[in-house]
Amino acid sequence: MAQKLQFVILGAGGRGRTFSEILSEECGPGSVVAVAEPDARRRAKIAETHGIPAKHCFETWQQLLDQPKMADIVVNTTMDHDHIGSAVKAMELGYHMLLEKPMAVTLADCETINNVRKATGRIVSVCHSLRYHATFAAVRDLLRSGVIGDIVSYDQLEAVEHVHQSHSFVRGNWANESRSTFMLMSKSCHDIDILVDMVDDEVVDASSYGERTFFREENKPEGAPQYCIEGCPHANTCPYDATKLYLSESGWAKYVGFADMPRQQAMDALRVSPYGRCVFQTDNDVVDHQVVALKFAGGQTATFTMTAFTPFGGRFIRVHGTKGYLESKVDEGKIDYWEFWKNNQKTSVDVPKAQGAHGGADALVMRTLIKAVVDNDPSLVLTDTETSLKTHRVVFMAEQARRSGANVKVQGRTGVTAI
C-alpha cells in the first residue's frame, strides 16, 4: 500500500533531495508527483528522479499549494520562516505531512501549527531524526531498563565541526537570525528534544550562555579580502578558504550546486556567492558556542553544549545514575556502561551502523510516517506536533535565559515568553 501513496516536496535543498531519494527507494520513482523549489537545477533534479511533468514543477511553495490537493503527504523542507504558512496551508488542504525541524521560529507559530494539526486531524511527523537513531534508541532502552539506576545528571555534546559551522551557520542559510532563527533552534532543537526524552521528566528551570566569539570581523587575518577567490594571503593555512572547500573534492561543493558546474563557472560564482565570502566578513549573527543547563521536576540536572570548535562532527553523551554510569559516542555506535553494584562491571555495546542520513534515521522517519498514514495510526509517529511543541518550549526557555542572562522558570502552560 505504501507504493500507492503519493508525495509532494516543498523545498529541494539538501533535506528535500535526501527525502526524494528515500522515497525513490521506499515507494519507487514516481512517488513524488510535484515539487516546489526556487532553484531551477535543484527542482529539475527531483523532477528527473521521479518523472515529474513540467506543469507540476513550481518555483514557490505558495504556487504548489494554490493547486487542488495533489497527493497524500507533503514533505515540508522549506526554510524555517516559511514553515508556519506552508504547514498550515498544507494541513488545511488535506495533506498529511513530514515537517522538517524546527516546527517554526516563534512559540506562537509552533502552537498554531499544533492547533491546526489537532483541528484538521492530519498525521504530522516533525523530523526529529535523533528519536529514530539506532544508538539513541539503544541508550534509551538501557536507561529505561534501570541498569544504571535513576538518572541524576545527563550531559550531551553536539560537535558541529568547524567547517560545517562555517558552511551552514557563517556563510549559509542559517547564519543570520532574520533569515532563519537562533542557533539553538535551527541546529540543536534535535538535541534538546532527545535530551528531554532521555531524562523523561518535566523541565522546570533553564539557564544558558553563548556567544559569537570567533567568526567576527575583528578576528579577520591581516590582508584578507572580502571574497577568498580574490587572493587571500592566508589561503594555504586557513581551514575556511572557500576555494579549498568549494573547488575541490572536499564534498562541500555538492551542497551549494558547485559540484555540477564547470570549474570556471564555479570560480565565477564564488566571486558573488555568500559561500565565497571570508568567514570573518559576513553578516552572520548566530552564536558559535552555547551551553544550556536544565533542572527537571524530579531534581535531575542536564547540560547541553553546542560548539563549532571541533575537528569532527557528532554527538556524545554521559549519563550519571544512582547505580551506574553510561557514556556513548553516538555516531560511532559505541555505548559503555558501568554498574556500581556489580563491582563496577563494565559492559560495552556496539550498535550496528545503518546506511543513510543521520545514521539511517531519516529513512526510518519516513517509513514510520508512511505506516502511520497507511494504518491511520498517528500514535506510530514518535514526534508529532504536540510532542515537538513540548521540547520546542524548552528551547525557547533556554534561549530566553541566554538573552536575559537570568534563569527562566516554568510559569503556567508555556514557561516562556515569545521570542
Describe the structure.
This protein is an alpha/beta fold. Among the domains are: 149 residues, NAD(P)-binding Rossmann-like Domain (Rossmann fold); 60 residues, no CATH class. It is 33% helix and 20% strand. It contains 13 helices and 15 strands. Strands 14-13-12-11-7-10-9-8-15 form a nine-stranded mixed sheet. A six-stranded parallel sheet has the order 3-2-1-4-5-6, sandwiched between helices. The two termini are 42 Å apart. The mean pLDDT is 94.
Shape annotation: globular
The strand count comes to 15
Strand content: 15-25%
**CATH architectural type of one domain:** 3-Layer(aba) Sandwich
CATH superfamily of one domain: NAD(P)-binding Rossmann-like Domain
Count of DSSP H/I helices: 13
**What structural class is derived from the secondary structure elements?**
alpha/beta
**Helix share bin:** 25-40%
Rg (C-alpha, Å): 22 Å
| N→C terminal distance | 42 Å
Task: Indicate the mean pLDDT.
Answer: 94
* CATH class annotation of one domain: Alpha Beta
Order of helices and strands: EHEHEHEHEHEHEHHHEHHEEEEEEHHE
Sheet of most strands? 9 strands, mixed
**CATH topology label of one domain:** Rossmann fold
